[in-house]
Amino acid sequence: MDWGRAKNVLIYAFLLLNLVLGYQLWNGVREQRDSNLDITSLENNTQRMMDEKQIRVLAKIPTETPELAKIAYRFVDGDQRGKTVDLPAPVDSKLIFSPRELASALKNTLPDIDQYRYDEVASSADVFVLHPLVDGKWPLFKIEMKLLGSNQKIISYQRQAIEISYPEEEKPQRVLSASKALGNLIENFLPEGSVVTEIELGYYGEVFDSDAHLPAAPAWRFMLESGKEYYVQGISGDVISPNTEKTKE
Protein backbone atom coordinates (compact mmCIF):
# COMPACT_ATOMS: atom_id res chain seq x y z
CA MET A 1 0.00 0.00 0.00
CA ASP A 2 1.21 3.48 -0.86
CA TRP A 3 0.93 5.13 2.58
CA GLY A 4 2.00 8.51 1.29
CA ARG A 5 -0.76 8.56 -1.28
CA ALA A 6 -3.32 7.30 1.27
CA LYS A 7 -2.25 10.04 3.67
CA ASN A 8 -2.80 12.70 1.00
CA VAL A 9 -6.26 11.30 0.22
CA LEU A 10 -7.24 11.48 3.89
CA ILE A 11 -5.96 15.06 4.19
CA TYR A 12 -7.97 16.14 1.14
CA ALA A 13 -11.06 14.34 2.47
CA PHE A 14 -10.80 16.15 5.83
CA LEU A 15 -10.31 19.48 4.06
CA LEU A 16 -13.39 18.85 1.93
CA LEU A 17 -15.41 17.85 5.00
CA ASN A 18 -14.35 21.03 6.81
CA LEU A 19 -15.37 23.11 3.80
CA VAL A 20 -18.81 21.48 3.71
CA LEU A 21 -19.35 21.90 7.47
CA GLY A 22 -18.13 25.49 7.30
CA TYR A 23 -20.55 26.30 4.48
CA GLN A 24 -23.47 24.72 6.36
CA LEU A 25 -22.61 26.73 9.47
CA TRP A 26 -22.32 29.97 7.48
CA ASN A 27 -25.57 29.29 5.64
CA GLY A 28 -27.39 28.55 8.92
CA VAL A 29 -26.13 31.76 10.50
CA ARG A 30 -27.17 33.74 7.43
CA GLU A 31 -30.69 32.24 7.42
CA GLN A 32 -31.08 32.90 11.12
CA ARG A 33 -29.91 36.49 10.65
CA ASP A 34 -32.31 37.02 7.77
CA SER A 35 -35.30 35.51 9.61
CA ASN A 36 -34.71 37.22 12.95
CA LEU A 37 -34.75 40.91 12.23
CA ASP A 38 -33.75 42.69 15.45
CA ILE A 39 -34.45 46.23 16.58
CA THR A 40 -31.59 47.57 14.48
CA SER A 41 -34.02 47.26 11.56
CA LEU A 42 -36.09 50.04 13.11
CA GLU A 43 -35.45 53.60 12.06
CA ASN A 44 -33.08 55.66 14.20
CA ASN A 45 -35.80 57.97 15.50
CA THR A 46 -37.84 54.92 16.51
CA GLN A 47 -34.91 53.48 18.43
CA ARG A 48 -34.42 56.82 20.18
CA MET A 49 -38.10 56.86 21.11
CA MET A 50 -37.75 53.34 22.50
CA ASP A 51 -35.00 54.57 24.79
CA GLU A 52 -36.92 57.67 25.86
CA LYS A 53 -40.13 55.73 26.59
CA GLN A 54 -38.23 52.72 28.00
CA ILE A 55 -40.00 50.36 25.62
CA ARG A 56 -38.63 46.86 25.15
CA VAL A 57 -39.25 44.43 22.28
CA LEU A 58 -38.79 40.81 23.36
CA ALA A 59 -40.49 39.30 20.31
CA LYS A 60 -38.82 38.47 17.02
CA ILE A 61 -39.72 41.01 14.35
CA PRO A 62 -40.93 39.05 11.29
CA THR A 63 -39.47 39.93 7.91
CA GLU A 64 -42.25 38.53 5.73
CA THR A 65 -44.39 40.94 3.70
CA PRO A 66 -46.68 38.69 1.63
CA GLU A 67 -49.33 39.87 -0.80
CA LEU A 68 -52.73 39.31 0.82
CA ALA A 69 -56.27 40.30 -0.13
CA LYS A 70 -59.10 41.38 2.12
CA ILE A 71 -61.67 38.66 2.79
CA ALA A 72 -65.25 38.37 3.97
CA TYR A 73 -66.80 35.93 6.42
CA ARG A 74 -70.18 35.17 7.92
CA PHE A 75 -71.38 33.15 10.89
CA VAL A 76 -72.82 29.86 9.69
CA ASP A 77 -75.18 29.28 12.62
CA GLY A 78 -75.40 32.82 13.96
CA ASP A 79 -73.26 34.06 16.83
CA GLN A 80 -72.66 30.98 19.01
CA ARG A 81 -70.16 32.54 21.43
CA GLY A 82 -72.08 31.68 24.60
CA LYS A 83 -73.12 28.14 23.69
CA THR A 84 -71.10 25.38 25.38
CA VAL A 85 -71.10 21.89 23.89
CA ASP A 86 -69.80 18.91 25.87
CA LEU A 87 -67.37 16.52 24.19
CA PRO A 88 -68.50 12.86 23.96
CA ALA A 89 -65.34 11.92 25.87
CA PRO A 90 -62.69 14.05 27.64
CA VAL A 91 -59.42 14.64 25.79
CA ASP A 92 -55.99 15.05 27.37
CA SER A 93 -55.27 18.80 27.44
CA LYS A 94 -51.59 18.12 26.66
CA LEU A 95 -52.66 17.39 23.07
CA ILE A 96 -53.26 21.10 22.56
CA PHE A 97 -49.52 21.41 21.96
CA SER A 98 -49.59 18.63 19.35
CA PRO A 99 -51.93 19.83 16.56
CA ARG A 100 -51.87 16.54 14.66
CA GLU A 101 -52.78 14.45 17.71
CA LEU A 102 -55.41 16.97 18.82
CA ALA A 103 -57.02 16.90 15.37
CA SER A 104 -57.04 13.10 15.46
CA ALA A 105 -58.65 13.02 18.92
CA LEU A 106 -61.39 15.51 18.01
CA LYS A 107 -61.94 14.75 14.32
CA ASN A 108 -65.32 13.08 14.91
CA THR A 109 -66.67 16.00 16.95
CA LEU A 110 -64.84 18.85 15.17
CA PRO A 111 -63.83 17.52 11.74
CA ASP A 112 -62.33 20.85 10.61
CA ILE A 113 -60.23 21.47 13.72
CA ASP A 114 -57.07 21.12 11.61
CA GLN A 115 -58.09 24.44 10.05
CA TYR A 116 -57.62 26.18 13.42
CA ARG A 117 -54.46 27.31 15.19
CA TYR A 118 -53.85 27.42 18.93
CA ASP A 119 -53.25 30.91 20.34
CA GLU A 120 -51.10 30.52 23.43
CA VAL A 121 -51.02 34.20 24.39
CA ALA A 122 -54.84 34.45 24.38
CA SER A 123 -55.33 31.23 26.35
CA SER A 124 -55.34 30.45 30.06
CA ALA A 125 -54.93 27.35 32.22
CA ASP A 126 -58.34 25.85 31.41
CA VAL A 127 -59.40 27.84 28.34
CA PHE A 128 -57.59 27.05 25.10
CA VAL A 129 -58.24 29.60 22.36
CA LEU A 130 -57.93 28.69 18.68
CA HIS A 131 -58.49 30.85 15.58
CA PRO A 132 -59.68 29.73 12.14
CA LEU A 133 -57.03 29.94 9.44
CA VAL A 134 -57.31 31.89 6.21
CA ASP A 135 -55.73 29.94 3.35
CA GLY A 136 -54.62 27.40 5.93
CA LYS A 137 -51.96 29.77 7.28
CA TRP A 138 -53.11 33.15 8.58
CA PRO A 139 -55.14 33.23 11.84
CA LEU A 140 -58.40 35.21 11.82
CA PHE A 141 -57.99 37.10 15.10
CA LYS A 142 -61.04 37.88 17.29
CA ILE A 143 -62.91 34.88 15.87
CA GLU A 144 -62.45 32.10 18.39
CA MET A 145 -63.07 28.49 19.19
CA LYS A 146 -62.53 27.80 22.88
CA LEU A 147 -61.69 24.36 24.20
CA LEU A 148 -62.67 24.28 27.86
CA GLY A 149 -60.74 22.13 30.31
CA SER A 150 -60.87 20.75 33.82
CA ASN A 151 -58.38 18.55 35.69
CA GLN A 152 -56.01 18.54 32.69
CA LYS A 153 -58.76 17.30 30.37
CA ILE A 154 -60.63 19.10 27.60
CA ILE A 155 -64.30 18.47 28.32
CA SER A 156 -66.28 20.94 26.19
CA TYR A 157 -66.01 23.70 23.60
CA GLN A 158 -67.50 26.99 22.46
CA ARG A 159 -67.38 27.77 18.78
CA GLN A 160 -68.09 30.53 16.29
CA ALA A 161 -68.45 28.58 13.06
CA ILE A 162 -67.79 30.77 10.04
CA GLU A 163 -67.66 30.63 6.26
CA ILE A 164 -64.89 32.56 4.50
CA SER A 165 -65.28 34.06 1.03
CA TYR A 166 -62.98 36.00 -1.28
CA PRO A 167 -64.64 39.02 -2.96
CA GLU A 168 -63.55 39.29 -6.59
CA GLU A 169 -62.99 43.04 -6.31
CA GLU A 170 -60.40 42.59 -3.55
CA LYS A 171 -56.95 42.14 -5.09
CA PRO A 172 -53.88 40.97 -3.16
CA GLN A 173 -51.63 43.78 -1.95
CA ARG A 174 -48.21 43.82 -0.31
CA VAL A 175 -48.68 44.14 3.45
CA LEU A 176 -46.91 46.72 5.56
CA SER A 177 -43.70 45.41 7.11
CA ALA A 178 -43.75 44.49 10.77
CA SER A 179 -40.86 46.87 11.48
CA LYS A 180 -42.77 49.86 10.04
CA ALA A 181 -45.95 48.90 11.89
CA LEU A 182 -44.00 48.54 15.13
CA GLY A 183 -42.25 51.86 14.56
CA ASN A 184 -45.61 53.62 14.26
CA LEU A 185 -46.80 52.02 17.50
CA ILE A 186 -43.66 52.91 19.42
CA GLU A 187 -43.64 56.53 18.29
CA ASN A 188 -47.34 57.29 18.60
CA PHE A 189 -49.32 54.77 20.62
CA LEU A 190 -47.44 52.55 23.08
CA PRO A 191 -47.31 53.89 26.65
CA GLU A 192 -44.04 54.28 28.52
CA GLY A 193 -42.55 51.07 29.86
CA SER A 194 -44.39 48.84 27.35
CA VAL A 195 -42.93 45.40 26.66
CA VAL A 196 -43.82 43.82 23.30
CA THR A 197 -43.89 40.04 23.72
CA GLU A 198 -45.49 38.77 20.51
CA ILE A 199 -45.81 39.89 16.87
CA GLU A 200 -47.88 37.91 14.38
CA LEU A 201 -49.48 38.48 11.00
CA GLY A 202 -53.08 37.41 10.45
CA TYR A 203 -56.50 38.89 9.72
CA TYR A 204 -58.53 41.17 11.96
CA GLY A 205 -62.26 40.52 12.01
CA GLU A 206 -64.79 42.37 14.11
CA VAL A 207 -67.49 40.30 15.82
CA PHE A 208 -71.05 41.40 15.06
CA ASP A 209 -74.32 39.54 15.54
CA SER A 210 -75.16 39.50 11.84
CA ASP A 211 -76.02 37.08 9.06
CA ALA A 212 -74.31 39.30 6.50
CA HIS A 213 -70.78 38.89 5.21
CA LEU A 214 -68.33 40.85 7.34
CA PRO A 215 -65.01 42.26 6.09
CA ALA A 216 -61.61 41.30 7.44
CA ALA A 217 -58.24 42.74 6.44
CA PRO A 218 -54.65 41.58 6.93
CA ALA A 219 -53.26 42.91 10.20
CA TRP A 220 -50.23 42.67 12.43
CA ARG A 221 -51.03 41.79 16.04
CA PHE A 222 -48.77 43.16 18.77
CA MET A 223 -49.21 41.70 22.26
CA LEU A 224 -47.86 43.51 25.31
CA GLU A 225 -46.68 41.97 28.55
CA SER A 226 -49.56 43.79 30.27
CA GLY A 227 -52.06 41.77 28.22
CA LYS A 228 -53.07 44.71 26.05
CA GLU A 229 -53.11 44.15 22.31
CA TYR A 230 -52.76 46.37 19.27
CA TYR A 231 -53.53 45.61 15.65
CA VAL A 232 -52.03 47.46 12.71
CA GLN A 233 -54.01 47.09 9.49
CA GLY A 234 -51.63 45.58 6.96
CA ILE A 235 -52.78 47.66 3.99
CA SER A 236 -53.79 51.08 5.33
CA GLY A 237 -51.55 51.12 8.41
CA ASP A 238 -54.47 52.10 10.68
CA VAL A 239 -53.95 51.18 14.33
CA ILE A 240 -56.69 49.37 16.23
CA SER A 241 -56.74 48.88 19.98
CA PRO A 242 -59.60 46.48 20.82
CA ASN A 243 -59.29 47.46 24.48
CA THR A 244 -60.73 50.85 23.58
CA GLU A 245 -62.52 49.78 20.36
CA LYS A 246 -61.15 52.84 18.57
CA THR A 247 -59.44 53.00 15.23
CA LYS A 248 -56.57 55.47 14.95
CA GLU A 249 -54.84 56.72 11.83
UniProtKB/TrEMBL annotation:
<dbReference type="GO" id="GO:0016020">
    <property type="term" value="C:membrane"/>
</dbReference>
<dbReference type="InterPro" id="IPR018604">
    <property type="entry name" value="YycI-like"/>
</dbReference>
<protein>
    <recommendedName>
        <fullName>Regulatory protein YycH-like domain-containing protein</fullName>
    </recommendedName>
</protein>
<dbReference type="Pfam" id="PF09648">
    <property type="entry name" value="YycI"/>
</dbReference>
<feature type="domain" description="Regulatory protein YycH-like">
    <location>
        <begin position="99"/>
        <end position="233"/>
    </location>
</feature>
